[in-house]
Write a structure and sequence with these properties.
Layout: E1 7-11, H1 16-27, E2 31-36, E3 52-56, H2 62-72, E4 76-79, H3 93-114, E5 118-122, H4 146-165, E6 169-174, E7 177-178, H5 187-196, E8 201-202, E9 209-210, E10 213-214, H6 215-227, E11 235-238, E12 244-245, H7 246-256, E13 264-265, H8 283-289, H9 297-311
Parallel strand pairs: 1-2, 1-4, 2-3, 4-5, 5-6, 6-11, 7-10, 8-13
Antiparallel strand pairs: 9-12
Helix pairs in contact: 1-6, 2-3, 3-4, 5-7, 5-9
Length: 312
């Protein structure tokens, strides 16, 4: 798809998924500006430095967000910026409320002020909690940690803006995502980086099931959500719908890294609030967006492992 003539603001555009999204938008001909807390253009976007404007701001500052968005006058906003904490302790709750809910409200209001054609809020599959799988978009939400709670609350803000103000808001719920450049505290990249260093890979017994999605597939869904008018007002899962036991994912990665399975130390305790199954019903994304995952697990893991071999 060609996006020439479209002006995108990507909040959180200096993060893992943000960098991949920004690259995709630029490759499709869009004008892209980033709102993030960042000293400069992140290294994954070095070769595109002359094509990107980055605004180093805190999205909890309403005046700054409003001023910059009014200056840019974007046609589309994709809102990724959020506090994400892998351990997700209770002490993060106040800061997560401030950034994830307050920042979303500020960005929504700025979007309304400039009359954006599309506002895509990037939520998470964590909002479902231990629901019956496959997760469907109309399932009751049951967030079990501060990150999921603030994402679920922000979804309600977005729906209210759509219902009461007619804002063109779309909510997407990506499932577990991995790929080049991701920080090593996430499942796939934790295993890859430790395996490549011949370090012990600490995990649980791995009976819980997860699906893993290559970042390019999720980014494709975000872009389609932003430019598809019939997606406005909708909540849409982005996930492959194929879940695997975590231990089998770990073993496959270790094998693909050419390492011995003895590196796996599967003795960590499960979380008290462990969700045992996470699998998307992606029929809505297929029907509304014409989206489907294109990258197989084998290909996605190989590309990610190759990247970490080069950059470790």
């Amino acid at each position: 798809m060609m996006l020439s003539g479209m002006r995108f603001v990507v909040t959180g555009g200096a993060g893992f998924m943000g960098c991949h999204l920004v690259r995709r938008l630029l490759n499709e001909g869009a004008d892209v500006q980033i709102l993030d807390r960042c000293d400069g253009i992140p290294s994954p976007l070095d070769d595109l430095r002359t094509k990107i404007l980055l605004h180093d701001i805190d999205i909890t500052n309403k005046e700054d967000v409003m001023r910059i968005v009014k200056d840019i006058k974007p046609t589309h906003i994709i809102h990724l910026a959020a506090i994400v904490n892998a351990a997700r302790p209770e002490r993060m709750l106040h800061r997560a409320i401030e950034v994830n809910i307050g920042g979303t409200l500020n960005t929504l209001e700025a979007s309304r002020a400039v009359g954006c054609s599309s506002f895509v809020f990037v939520s998470t599959s964590d909002v479902y909690g231990p629901a019956a799988t496959p997760f469907k978009e109309d399932a009751p939400l049951d967030p079990r940690n501060p990150y999921a709670f603030t994402k679920a609350s922000s979804e309600l803000l977005c729906l209210m803006a759509n219902h009461t103000n007619g804002q063109p808001v779309t909510i997407v719920r990506p499932f577990t995502t991995y790929g080049p450049g991701q920080k090593p505290f996430m499942l796939v990249t934790h295993v890859i980086t430790n395996a490549l260093m011949d370090s012990s890979i600490k995990t649980t017994a791995g009976a819980q099931c997860r699906e893993i999605n290559y970042v390019d597939d999720i980014v494709d869904g975000l872009v389609r959500a932003a430019v598809t008018p019939k997606a406005i007002g909708q909540i849409i899962n982005l996930g492959c719908g194929i879940e695997l036991p975590v231990l089998s994912i770990v073993r496959r990665i270790v094998e693909m890294c050419g390492k011995d399975q003895s590196l796996i130390d599967a003795t960590m305790p499960y979380r008290d609030d462990e969700v045992w199954h996470m699998r998307a019903d992606n029929s809505k994304a297929r029907d509304l967006l014409g989206w489907s995952p294109k990258v197989s697990i084998e290909d996605g893991l190989k590309m990610t492992i190759d990247w970490y071999k080069e950059h470790r």
